[in-house]
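Request: Have a read of the protein record below and say how the chain folds.
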Amino acid sequence: MTTVVTFDEDLHWEPVVELWTAVFGYETAHNAPNVVLKQTQAVDDGLFFVALVP
């Protein structure tokens, strides 16, 4: 069963960056996962979620 949770920087940062890089393979710095995640977290609207699949 898939569970959707609010993104927790301490728990999800590294796995999300790894997945994002593996799937999209960004080559330009402005699209790098770390940059986008920092921008998303700066908005702090609680609308960034992670799906956990066992």
